[in-house]
Amino acid sequence: MPQRTRKPLADLHNHLGASVRPSILWSIAHRQGIKLPTKSYWEFEEMITMRGKERNRNLSEMHDRFFRWTELIQSSPEAIEESVKAVIDGAYRRGNITLHELRFNPMKRNRGGERDLDNIIMSAVWGMDKALLEYPQVKAGLILIMDRSFPPEQNMILVEKAIKYAGRGVVGVDMAGPNHPKFSMRKHLPHFKKARSAGLGVTVHTGEERQLDEMRFVVEEVRPDRIGHGIQCVRSAPLMRRVAELGITLEICPTSNLKNSILPGIKALKDTFAALIKHDVPFVLCTDGPEMYQTHLHQEQEFLIERGILTEAQVEAARKHAFKVSFV
Q: What is the pLDDT of residues 203-226, one digit of tens each?
């Protein structure tokens, strides 16, 4: 089907480090003199993408394998501007993504403090602005990510930066990263409160791994607008009922959950959606990282319909819901 005939889509869960085409990252790396582990473009492409039946054993392996390279390559104002623009305009041209929320952690792109954080964030804003000038049909916003490996003081700086640039295109905050032994969600309650008081949207990566206690805490204490993934809640009917009662939307990324071994296979994915629908848990469909996982939002929809996981009506309901719950 020609892409121009497809319905407009909203991608609300999209990581910058997993969404830039390998050819663009390759060029950026060489312009900046970054030493890569290979001189072969094709080996580089294989290094930062997942194809066929390839899987990670867990989220930590995914971060170590992929993000350490993409974040390094994007660690300059010029690189971040080019990356953001490429993701937004490319997603519109290839998939009719007319509403795009792009998330990233600027502190993982400033070379450990070597680069100025404000310059990194403003460059992301400029990249987004340039894309929207070329494609006025598109709306977009940036979400700044806090990280579980950072101490609360460091994450608070990110919240303050999100608030500072709220009028320039930053629309929300997130907490992400694999489980970390020293991380405390409770110590970050002031962070979410401050962001919400400033009018920013709040989303939290939780319930992706087997972290039900944390997800229960997030639902009851943080009460985010949305939750990144959150699919482990299907192991608790009371938790699903609570998520539904509070109207918290789950950002579901099917291919990502399969590729990162969060779900063992198609049957588990089908059972997950069946449980969410049974308990009226609101959800949207997202890509997480279309280039890393070699997918796009239409492909996610078609996959779910063809495998009998969701009906066309259910996919359409999720598409419409995404526009309603966007932070943009």
A: 999 998 877 999 999 999 999 999
3-state helix, strand, coil in the chain (%, to 5): 55, 15, 30
Tell me how far apart the alpha carbons of residues 232 and 161 are, in angstroms, rounded to a whole number. Answer: 31
The residues facing 103 across adjacent strands are: 15, 143
pLDDT tens string 88-128:
999 999 999 999 999 999 999 988 888 899 999 999 999 99
- Sequence-distant (6+) residues with CB within 8 A of 266 are 258, 307, 309
- Asked if 255 contacts 290 with a C-beta cutoff of 8 angstroms, the reply is no
Task: Please check whether residue 297 is in contact with residue 97, taking contact to mean a CB–CB distance below 8 angstroms.
Answer: yes
CB neighbour list of residue 155: distance below 8 Å, 6 or more residues apart: 146, 147, 175, 188, 191
Which strands make up the sheet holding 283-285, listed edge to edge? 9-11, 97-104, 139-147, 170-176, 201-206, 226-229, 249-252, 283-285
Angle CA(156)–CA(160)–CA(163) in degrees, nearest 5?
A: 140
Note the pTM of the prediction, 2 decimals: 0.94
Which amino acid, residue 39? K
Provide the b/e sequence for 103-117 (b: ≥16 CB within 10 Å): bbbbbbbbeeeebee
Q: Bridge-partner residues for 102, per DSSP? A: 142
